[in-house]
Amino acid sequence: MNDILDKPDEFCGVVGIYGTTDAAVNAYLCLHALQHRGQESAGIAASDGINVTKKLGMGLVSDIFNEQNIKDLKGHIAIGHNRYSTTGASAALNMQPIVIKHRDGILGIGHNGNLCNSVSLKRALEDRGSIFQTTTDSEVILHLIAKSLEKTIVDKIKDAARQIKGAFSLVFLTRKKLIVLRDPHGFRPLALGKLGDAFIVASETSAFDLIGATYLRDVECGEMIVFDEKGMKSYHPFEKTDPAHCIFEFVYFSRPDSQIFGEYVDKTRRKLGKNLALESDIDADIVISVPDSSNTTALGYSARSSAKYEIGLIRNHYVGRTFIKPTQAIRTSSVRLKFNTVGGVLKDRRVVIVDDSIVRGTTIKQLVQAVRLAGAKEVHVRISSPPIKNPCFYGMNFPTHEELIANNRTVQEICDYLGADSLKYLSLKGMIDAMPQEGGQKYCTACFSGKYPVEVDDLQSDS
Amino acid sequence: MNDILDKPDEFCGVVGIYGTTDAAVNAYLCLHALQHRGQESAGIAASDGINVTKKLGMGLVSDIFNEQNIKDLKGHIAIGHNRYSTTGASAALNMQPIVIKHRDGILGIGHNGNLCNSVSLKRALEDRGSIFQTTTDSEVILHLIAKSLEKTIVDKIKDAARQIKGAFSLVFLTRKKLIVLRDPHGFRPLALGKLGDAFIVASETSAFDLIGATYLRDVECGEMIVFDEKGMKSYHPFEKTDPAHCIFEFVYFSRPDSQIFGEYVDKTRRKLGKNLALESDIDADIVISVPDSSNTTALGYSARSSAKYEIGLIRNHYVGRTFIKPTQAIRTSSVRLKFNTVGGVLKDRRVVIVDDSIVRGTTIKQLVQAVRLAGAKEVHVRISSPPIKNPCFYGMNFPTHEELIANNRTVQEICDYLGADSLKYLSLKGMIDAMPQEGGQKYCTACFSGKYPVEVDDLQSDS
Amino acid sequence: MNDILDKPDEFCGVVGIYGTTDAAVNAYLCLHALQHRGQESAGIAASDGINVTKKLGMGLVSDIFNEQNIKDLKGHIAIGHNRYSTTGASAALNMQPIVIKHRDGILGIGHNGNLCNSVSLKRALEDRGSIFQTTTDSEVILHLIAKSLEKTIVDKIKDAARQIKGAFSLVFLTRKKLIVLRDPHGFRPLALGKLGDAFIVASETSAFDLIGATYLRDVECGEMIVFDEKGMKSYHPFEKTDPAHCIFEFVYFSRPDSQIFGEYVDKTRRKLGKNLALESDIDADIVISVPDSSNTTALGYSARSSAKYEIGLIRNHYVGRTFIKPTQAIRTSSVRLKFNTVGGVLKDRRVVIVDDSIVRGTTIKQLVQAVRLAGAKEVHVRISSPPIKNPCFYGMNFPTHEELIANNRTVQEICDYLGADSLKYLSLKGMIDAMPQEGGQKYCTACFSGKYPVEVDDLQSDS
Amino acid sequence: MNDILDKPDEFCGVVGIYGTTDAAVNAYLCLHALQHRGQESAGIAASDGINVTKKLGMGLVSDIFNEQNIKDLKGHIAIGHNRYSTTGASAALNMQPIVIKHRDGILGIGHNGNLCNSVSLKRALEDRGSIFQTTTDSEVILHLIAKSLEKTIVDKIKDAARQIKGAFSLVFLTRKKLIVLRDPHGFRPLALGKLGDAFIVASETSAFDLIGATYLRDVECGEMIVFDEKGMKSYHPFEKTDPAHCIFEFVYFSRPDSQIFGEYVDKTRRKLGKNLALESDIDADIVISVPDSSNTTALGYSARSSAKYEIGLIRNHYVGRTFIKPTQAIRTSSVRLKFNTVGGVLKDRRVVIVDDSIVRGTTIKQLVQAVRLAGAKEVHVRISSPPIKNPCFYGMNFPTHEELIANNRTVQEICDYLGADSLKYLSLKGMIDAMPQEGGQKYCTACFSGKYPVEVDDLQSDS
Questions:
Q1: Which residues of A touch B256 (CB under 8 A)?
Q2: Contact (CB<8Å) B311/A299
């Protein structure tokens, strides 16, 4: 959980390249573009058809890679991975891509998502003598592949894929191939692009923009694509089922300049803001966003409201996630370190604060106080998604039920807790209405609605 | 020079605290708030009345300080400093605060600004046997103090201050005192605040907001203030002269949520945007900013224009100043890594891009291309300050004359170079009109106008 | 290979403790005493009956451990490991103890020795889907245990042990037990001691001396001992066979103050020196050693010779194994950096240099030159073991056949290469005569004689 | 103080080279040979006639230098320095060579020794406005030079040299010159050698051996030599006085393979051992040394005794000066970690332990116990120098009077404290008799006799 921002974490971002000179350099650039999806560790594995090399490290992409170690990652195939924070000691262990030697060669994996049956699969594998190196569910997939009796790596991966359940946007690297795979529900995004004659897949299309690649289409729900010297070949190893795209990708996770699930995030967020204003506008002077994730949403809100869009909160981008808690004698907080109010804008105004979601409520509570302290006459909070009441088993990192502020509290109780003059959430209907619906797009809304598209066999494991 | 952003660098930010428990913790928080003024190194020196301790390091405040080393900086007095990039090897040497032992005790110094006669002073001091540890002009001040024949540290500092010329907002720490000093023209900002019974000075008031301090007033031009157990005592060691506040602090450097030279930066920038629209509006669909420094200016522009404010460029805040130049085979640039376009917003629109200044023109040229590539029909560039034609000798880091794009080029030539449909700069008059004028406020506009308020004796030295 | 010293490397040292408070502290001290057996990496794993913790690192024991990380290794059970240099990238990967989670719990392993069938075992395991983390043969043992169908960890280890061939002195740690195991031939030493009520096993008894433990006896050839809350229980899972103790442990590897294979190394080395003098004494003034490994041998030699024992070579103990090769313009060598001659002792003397072995001959050649340069009239080389003609598959790291100077060269040819006045090796008979023979002690002399006690199925793997 | 060994520390070793290609590589090798004189930090400064570069670091020479940073130290002139441990925070600050820019150029200094009037000189310099960077007395010399009114650097150094008192073997580097200087009493050694056409000076001649240089003579007491493109020129800036060579250099500090003060250390130590046996032999079986510093002395002793020379103590050279104190539950000590007994040699024997000196007595006390524990019937301690009763002000680091075991204790009381059967020190006369006397050599014996050749004005400062 990103405590300072009071937002859920997304576990990861992935990228795969086939066919460029220095594929690792492209992967490196794409990981920069996907840095928001994971900031704890990053890694790249590359192959020149003969040798597979890798470089992984803790921290940001820019901390890990340098001219020399990027240069050492030779070849026309590369996969890359950004990973979000997991607990303590296991962090370094769980960096991805994981690269193993198995009977038939070398295999690297990068995984965005979360398996729902990894605990029972792991138990069964250990009963047969498998030794696990990491605590990730991604490693389960590798063991299933290593144990598969199929002949080719493509068939082995299919075999393994049919045994796993849950959310998985996967990139695999072998000496000769890039193989990508998306779960049948398509929980997490995975886009396919072209860069000259080369192919690229990435969690979000903003990675394509950076290197001048063109977006072709999404990897389909349940599709597996193999890229090698013969070109690109598509398979559908799963039975067809309904899509269940994570709606939170539109609400918060993805970059506004990305296309995911076939639509610009920016456009969807603007629509969320408009719907929010239509449902719950109030007479106010200005509307401000909690930068940067709700900027577009607040602009959308102001388009359907008489309140003027203003910049009332300044975000300090130099402040990372670690910061020394000052002693009690010092009156401040990590929220104040991250956000400051703009005095001239807020004084004597009736203010609407637009945010995309509330998890624990700790941050927005402090922002309401700060805006009041800066002289606002009224403070109204508007949230562009419904109350979050349920955990996610498909790749978001939420606190427990107990910590979710909307669990067992009415909206009025939450409003009182925040100290706001009013609080409104967007309705589930209003949220879904803002989403692209063409081609039968359907969404997972489990964290809001409690309707889980895939059953969870196990206690949640870490990925 | 900040190459990726094509903006001049400000050399430093300073803070001084007298009278709180754990003054260093307050200094640490304030350095976070002033991080935008210098990102190469940071440091804090503290005194508990008997022992002086310090901690300096290369990198961001959050990289340098941790719970333990902050705790080791004991006492009720502290000074802190953020420093901008200087060249190579001398970087670590030149970290501040510089703390020395001299005849009468310990003295620490933090300096924002640039001396204009440091070279000749240094030569004279070396002729008398002084040995310099750093290549900063700030150390010259220390040697002048150490050599002063005056009796008290206060008189020694006055003595030294009268010998130096140029821009200096200074914080000094001794075992028992915090002493602050601002040059007679007040080139760089320096605000005075109160936190309970304690005093604080800082380059910008956003540092006060963070720790809950109240802004009292600016340290006056030419004022020296001594804080010790007897309270606060003000001196005016210089002859009175006209103020010459750096106008670029309002245009670009300072945070929008700060008050400098007695006014909210945000308000001034909004006015710059309005004046810019009044002078040079054009028929367009949308106006976008180059985030984040020109956000408010673009909002101001849209308020006087028929073009709607939109978010058309997304800035990747994870990308630092160092980044691996990809090989020539890869088509991208550090500018694209830093900024991406929002496809849905720009396509088929007539776009006005508002930026605060152009130095070399490299970044805005690439942004114009990127916006066109995203489908914009027209791209018009509007700059909220006049063409920059001259170097600064008072603390900004510009490229040489030859590299300044406005040197020896007409606006139309620059427009052609950028590939924009039109380019307009705000007039000098329009810029000054946006500035606060109460109380005889006057501004240094040397980089635009070539009128230098203080003569420069020496080749520019590094501070 | 230790190039500067021109000696084979021993792969490792191991230690295991059961029953003391802070077992890890004892393990840490013992690893110091066993540092000569491996200097590339070291590690300790500890258990308090519930939690297993570990700390591993590259470098010397004193580089890796500090007050804090030793304190974190809580519990009454610990195993430790020093490891010798292996090639490049795999080094960090191959640090020991390796600690894994398997179906039934946690298992740590430390291994001294080398398996002779690890390649074929590994291939078979990979065919059944096992994924290897390291390139050590030690990991093969873990996979065999994890895959064993036996019920208890004791039976699983027995099951695995019966499948492996070669040299292995092993220490295992589980949550509740310390288990140790020595191969049927007892290639590598493993001593059993007592410290109050606690038990300790270590590669050499000098580890016992350091912590005040008492030597009880050796772990027998083919013996497995389990230490847990019920005390100590001994098993013999293998068929009985003849011992084949590595004779090189006496000649060079072990510390002179250790007892191995039941005898003081010092005593054996003195006997080697005496036998060497009896076989090949020559009329000379002084006998000097190549410090420190042949000090005792040279003393023994002088006891049976008219030549007086002197200190003619000084070893610089600060010089580690890495050292910058000076440019060709500089006339020196790593050997000269490591050893200097004592001018006053050597001048105008007829000198016997006693060394324990010659591998490539590079070092002794330079020492002969150096001794001549220091003014010696004659230089005679005496080696306390026979010519080394064959590789070792049981845990010593030799160069290839081609690089062994005694391969395809007569003693006279070697003498000419060294530039010595005479060269004599101890005979195989003379060497074995110096060894303890009680209780049917027998020795592996394969590197001298070519007689290998255990067949080697595979290409040599790395351990 | 080297606590584990219970020996005084020597503060430093110095080297200077003029005239070789890659002088820094030669300096680097020499620093390896002088590592025993200082292990806390090391540094090299080099000049190619135009640019001066330097590299300093904490730790051993092999930790600090690598292929790249040595390569960066270009030029035909170099000075190098090894430094011993000083207290805490000031350590990194006080690394040498110190390199400064002064009025007339660049000056580097490396200093072995200790000034006796540095405190009063420093006070006077600070009164005139000098700012000190370090807490070393060496920096005083630099300030005296920077302040000198003489015209040339040679005259400035002479001017400064005449103001300082005490022990100083100095190497200076300028852009064009190497200048070396030895105090009038010649407390510390400084040898002059030749390497082809190039010149070299170093604390000990073992540095010459390593790079193939030839020993010419010592830099004379009170001599200053300037090396530049015109060759070598000698000056004698001081009034002539009696030599006062540190006798402890022969007793303990210098390497046995070095010539200092014109004589091989080895030879002198052998004589010390012989004299010791002549004065205080006892009926015993064996004589053992405390390795490695008293090896030769013990050999000398055995030559005049019926006791046989044996190796009864093994020193673990991997154990550095830092080591984790085990908890009280563990019965061991840093002495036991450093030295182990050889059981087979000591059991049932009457043993003479020869050591060169006793400072606190802590180490020898534990060695006596250890030797008894190994079964010795009798343990007699013989020391090859008189009781140490006084501090040194010329470059050795002793504990305070109170901690010196021989201060206010009779030899019998010390013997009782050690638990030895007998204890004898060599007499002052016996020690001096072992020293070379040709050419009027005279020695400082202040630590034994209390007769100080140079008056000490100040409290001892740190160098």
A1: 311, 314, 342
A2: yes
Residues D79, D169: Cα–Cα separation, whole Å: 13
- Cross-chain Cβ contact D324/C28 below 8 Å: yes
Evaluate whether residue B364 is within a structural domain: yes
Neighbors of chain B by Cβ distance (3+ pairs < 8 Å): A, D
Q: Do B324 and A39 touch (CB under 8 A)?
A: no
- Is D28 within 8 Å of chain C by CB? yes
pLDDT of residue C323: 53
Together in a domain, D72 and D161: yes
Per-residue pLDDT of chain A (463 residues; tens, 9 = 90+): 556 678 877 679 999 999 999 999 999 999 999 999 998 899 999 999 999 999 999 988 988 999 889 999 999 999 999 998 654 445 678 899 999 998 889 999 999 999 999 999 999 999 999 999 888 899 999 999 999 999 999 999 999 999 999 999 999 999 999 999 999 999 999 999 999 999 999 999 999 999 999 999 999 999 999 999 999 999 999 999 999 999 999 999 999 999 999 899 999 999 999 999 999 999 999 999 999 999 999 999 999 999 999 999 999 988 765 555 555 545 567 788 889 999 889 999 999 999 999 999 989 999 999 999 999 999 999 999 999 999 999 988 877 888 899 998 999 999 999 999 999 999 999 999 999 987 778 999 999 999 999 988 765 444 3
Gap between the Cα atoms of C267 and A395, Å rounded: 66
> What percent of chain D lies above the pLDDT cut of 90?
78
Q: Quick check: D101 and B132 CB within 8 A? A: yes
C127 contacts in chain A (CB < 8 Å): 103
D106 Cβ under 8 Å from any chain B Cβ: no
What ranges make up the beta strands (E) of C48-124?
A: 52-58, 77-83, 98-102, 105-115
Based on the domain organization, do B31 and B134 belong to the same domain?
A: yes
Q: Do chains C and A touch (3 or more CB pairs under 8 A)?
A: yes
Contact A142 C131 (CB under 8 A): yes
Q: What total of structural domains would you count in chain B?
A: 2
Please list every residue in chain B whose beta carbon sits closer than 8 Å to the beta carbon of residue D127.
103
Q: Say if A277 is an interface residue toward chain B (CB within 8 Å).
A: no
DSSP letter for each residue of B422-460: EEEEPPHHHHHHTS--GGG--EE-HHHH---SS---SSP
> C145 to chain A: nearest residue by CA?
A129
The helix/strand count (H/E) of chain A reads as 17, 26
Q: Is A102 on the interface with C (CB under 8 A)?
A: yes
Q: How far apart are CA D226 and CA D209, in angstroms?
A: 23
A240 touches chain B (CB under 8 A): no
Query: What was the ipTM of the complex prediction?
Result: 0.91
Residue B295 lies in a domain: yes
Residue D333 touches partner C, C-beta closer than 8 Å? no
Residue C195, domain CATH: 3.60.20.10
Do residues B11 and B39 lie in contact, with contact meaning Cβ atoms separated by under 8 Å? no
Residue C129 and residue A146: Cβ atoms within 8 Å?
yes
Query: The CATH number of the domain where B386 resides is what?
Result: 3.40.50.2020
Last residue of a domain, one of A241, A261, A291: A241
D371: contact with C, CB 8 A cutoff: no
Instruction: Answer whether residue B463 is part of any domain.
Output: no
- Give the distance from CA B254 to its chain's centroid: 6
For residue A3, is it within any domain?
Answer: no
Residue D257 phi, psi dihedral angles, 5° rounding:
-85, 5
A350 and A307 belong to one structural domain: yes
Residues of A assigned a catalytic role: 12
Residues B230 and B274 in one domain: no
Same domain as B171, residue B105: yes
Same domain flag for D215 and D303: no
Q: Which residue on chain B is closest to A69 by alpha carbon?
A: B324
Q: Which two tokens stand for residue C313?
A: 């070579």
Domain of D39 in residue numbering reads as 9-241
Nearest 10 degrees: Cα torsion B268, B272, B273, B276: 170
D329: Cα separation from own chain's centroid: 37
Which residues of C are catalytically annotated?
12
The DSSP output letter for B319 is -
